[in-house]
C-alpha cells in the first residue's frame, strides 16, 4: 500500500512510520502545519506542531529514507478546531479539541488529501488497535479496539471515526507499551527517543485555558449563584472560564459559606451565570448526546455498553440506545451516578475493548436513587 505517515515530530509517530516501512508499505512522511505562527522552539512538554517538531519529523524521515512534506492545514485547524473550541466554551459547554482534530483534520482533511493524491491509507502514532474479523457477508470487518497499554490508550479520542475512515487507517503502536516504543526508537537511532510527550491542548502552550479564552472573548462579568437557594455568592469575569465539576479558581468568599466544598454544577451562557453547589449536586446517571458517530453499524435497540466521558477516565457500566426520532441522538443510562459530566464533553461507548461509537453530551440528568461515585 501507499501510506501517508502523519509525523508530528514525536517519538510515537516516528516509530509508527518506521513500522509501516518495515511492513513493506510505500511510506511518505507528512507533518501538519497547524499554526501560521508556530513557536520556534518548544518551551516545555506542552503543545506540539512547533518549528522544532517539524525539524524533528524531517530528521526521522531522512533517517528512514522516505520522502517528507509539510502540509499547511492552519486555516482548517483554525476554523474547525480553535474557533469551535471558543464557540463551545462561549455557549457554556466543555469541548474536547483532540476529538475535533481527529475528526476534522487527521481523518478528514488529511485522509481526503492523501486519497486524492493516490495514497491508500493514513498511519498515525495513536495508541489504539484495529482488529480485523470476517463479517457475515464474507467481507473483512475492521474494528477499533483499546490499546494494550492502558495508560496510553487513545481509543477515546478516536471514537469519532466511521467505517470508511477505519478502512483507511493504521495504528501500528497499539500492541506495544510506551516504554518499549522509546526503546525501539533508541535502537533505530532516532533523536526523538527521549523527547517528552506533548500534553494538554496543543494550541494553548502555557496551559492557561481561561486566560486564552479571555484574550479572545474579553472579560464578561457576571454572577456566581447558589444552585439551590438562588443567592448570589460571588462574581466572575466570564462564564466561559468555568466547567461543570470545577472546584479550584472559583474565587468565593469562604467565610460566607459552610465548611463543605463548592463546585461548579452548571454554566448558564444565556444569562452569563455560573451555578455553584455541593458535590452531591454533581452526580448524574442520564446522558443525552448528539452528533453520534459509529465505528461500525449503529446499535439496534437497547444495548449494554461501557461509557467513558474523559480521555483517560474510568469506564462505567451503562445501557444505551439510539433515539427513535433522530438517529444522531444517543441516550445513555448509567448504572450508578458519576460526577462532573459536562455538556460538550464526548461520551464514548465500548463493548469490551471494542469502540462502538461516540457522541457529544448535550444534557445530563438524574433518574435513579443510586449513590454517586
UniProtKB/TrEMBL annotation:
<feature type="active site" description="Cysteine persulfide intermediate">
    <location>
        <position position="202"/>
    </location>
</feature>
<feature type="active site" description="Nucleophile">
    <location>
        <position position="101"/>
    </location>
</feature>
<feature type="binding site">
    <location>
        <position position="125"/>
    </location>
    <ligand>
        <name>ATP</name>
    </ligand>
</feature>
<keyword id="KW-0819">tRNA processing</keyword>
<dbReference type="Pfam" id="PF20258">
    <property type="entry name" value="tRNA_Me_trans_C"/>
</dbReference>
<feature type="site" description="Interaction with tRNA">
    <location>
        <position position="345"/>
    </location>
</feature>
<feature type="binding site">
    <location>
        <position position="32"/>
    </location>
    <ligand>
        <name>ATP</name>
    </ligand>
</feature>
<dbReference type="Pfam" id="PF03054">
    <property type="entry name" value="tRNA_Me_trans"/>
</dbReference>
<dbReference type="InterPro" id="IPR014729">
    <property type="entry name" value="Rossmann-like_a/b/a_fold"/>
</dbReference>
<keyword id="KW-0963">Cytoplasm</keyword>
<dbReference type="GO" id="GO:0000049">
    <property type="term" value="F:tRNA binding"/>
</dbReference>
<keyword id="KW-0808">Transferase</keyword>
<keyword id="KW-1015">Disulfide bond</keyword>
<feature type="site" description="Interaction with tRNA">
    <location>
        <position position="126"/>
    </location>
</feature>
<dbReference type="GO" id="GO:0005524">
    <property type="term" value="F:ATP binding"/>
</dbReference>
<feature type="binding site">
    <location>
        <begin position="6"/>
        <end position="13"/>
    </location>
    <ligand>
        <name>ATP</name>
    </ligand>
</feature>
<feature type="region of interest" description="Interaction with tRNA">
    <location>
        <begin position="152"/>
        <end position="154"/>
    </location>
</feature>
<dbReference type="GO" id="GO:0002143">
    <property type="term" value="P:tRNA wobble position uridine thiolation"/>
</dbReference>
<protein>
    <recommendedName>
        <fullName>tRNA-specific 2-thiouridylase MnmA</fullName>
        <ecNumber>2.8.1.13</ecNumber>
    </recommendedName>
</protein>
<feature type="domain" description="tRNA-specific 2-thiouridylase MnmA-like C-terminal">
    <location>
        <begin position="286"/>
        <end position="361"/>
    </location>
</feature>
<dbReference type="GO" id="GO:0005737">
    <property type="term" value="C:cytoplasm"/>
</dbReference>
<comment type="similarity">
    <text>Belongs to the MnmA/TRMU family.</text>
</comment>
<dbReference type="GO" id="GO:0103016">
    <property type="term" value="F:tRNA-uridine 2-sulfurtransferase activity"/>
</dbReference>
<dbReference type="InterPro" id="IPR046884">
    <property type="entry name" value="MnmA-like_central"/>
</dbReference>
<feature type="domain" description="tRNA-specific 2-thiouridylase MnmA-like central">
    <location>
        <begin position="212"/>
        <end position="277"/>
    </location>
</feature>
<dbReference type="Pfam" id="PF20259">
    <property type="entry name" value="tRNA_Me_trans_M"/>
</dbReference>
<comment type="function">
    <text>Catalyzes the 2-thiolation of uridine at the wobble position (U34) of tRNA, leading to the formation of s(2)U34.</text>
</comment>
<keyword id="KW-0820">tRNA-binding</keyword>
<keyword id="KW-0694">RNA-binding</keyword>
<dbReference type="InterPro" id="IPR023382">
    <property type="entry name" value="MnmA-like_central_sf"/>
</dbReference>
<dbReference type="InterPro" id="IPR004506">
    <property type="entry name" value="MnmA-like"/>
</dbReference>
<dbReference type="InterPro" id="IPR046885">
    <property type="entry name" value="MnmA-like_C"/>
</dbReference>
<keyword id="KW-0067">ATP-binding</keyword>
<keyword id="KW-0547">Nucleotide-binding</keyword>
Amino acid at each position: 500500500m501507499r501510506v501517508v505517515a502523519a509525523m508530528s515530530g514525536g517519538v510515537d509517530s516516528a516509530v509508527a512510520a518506521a513500522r509501516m516501512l518495515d511492513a513493506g508499505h510505500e511510506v511518505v512522511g507528512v507533518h501538519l502545519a497547524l499554526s501560521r505562527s508556530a513557536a520556534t522552539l518548544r518551551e516545555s512538554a506542552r503543545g506540539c506542531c512547533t518549528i522544532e517538531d517539524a525539524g524533528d519529523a524531517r530528521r526521522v524521515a531522512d533517517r528512514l529514507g522516505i520522502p517528507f512534506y509539510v502540509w499547511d492545514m492552519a486555516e482548517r485547524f483554525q476554523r474547525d478546531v480553535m474557533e469551535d473550541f471558543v464557540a463551545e466554551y462561549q455557549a457554556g459547554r466543555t469541548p474536547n479539541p483532540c476529538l475535533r482534530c481527529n475528526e476534522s483534520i487527521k481523518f478528514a482533511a488529511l485522509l481526503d488529501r492523501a486519497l486524492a493524491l493516490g495514497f491508500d491509507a493514513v498511519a498515525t502514532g495513536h495508541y489504539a488497535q484495529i482488529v480485523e474479523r470476517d463479517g457475515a457477508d464474507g467481507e473483512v470487518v475492521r474494528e477499533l479496539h483499546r490499546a494494550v497499554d492502558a495508560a496510553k490508550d487513545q481509543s477515546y479520542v478516536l471514537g469519532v471515526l466511521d467505517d470508511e475512515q477505519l478502512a483507511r487507517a493504521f495504528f501500528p503502536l497499539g500492541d506495544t507499551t510506551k516504554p518499549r516504543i522509546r526503546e525501539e526508537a533508541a535502537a533505530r537511532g532516532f533523536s526523538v527517543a527521549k523527547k517528552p510527550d506533548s500534553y494538554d491542548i496543543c494550541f494553548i502552550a502555557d496551559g492557561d485555558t481561561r486566560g486564552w479564552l479571555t484574550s479572545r472573548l474579553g472579560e464578561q462579568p457576571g454572577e456566581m449563584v447558589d444552585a439551590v437557594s438562588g443567592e448570589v455568592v460571588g462574581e466572575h469575569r466570564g462564564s466561559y472560564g468555568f466547567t461543570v465539576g470545577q472546584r479550584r479558581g472559583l474565587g468565593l468568599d469562604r467565610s460566607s459559606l459552610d465548611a463543605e466544598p463548592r463546585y461548579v454544577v452548571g454554566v448558564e451562557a444565556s444569562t452569563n451565570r455560573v451555578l455553584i453547589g455541593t458535590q452531591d449536586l454533581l452526580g448524574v446517571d442520564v446522558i443525552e448526546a448528539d452528533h453520534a458517530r459509529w465505528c461500525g453499524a449503529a446499535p439496534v435497540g437497547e444495548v449494554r455498553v461501557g461509557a467513558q466521558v474523559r480521555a483517560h477516565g474510568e469506564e462505567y457500566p451503562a445501557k444505551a440506545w439510539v433515539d427513535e426520532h433522530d438517529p444522531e441522538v444517543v441516550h445513555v443510562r448509567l448504572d450508578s451516578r458519576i460526577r462532573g459530566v459536562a455538556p460538550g464533553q464526548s461520551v464514548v461507548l465500548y463493548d469490551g475493548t471494542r469502540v462502538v461509537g461516540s457522541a457529544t453530551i448535550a444534557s445530563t440528568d438524574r433518574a435513579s436513587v443510586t449513590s454517586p461515585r
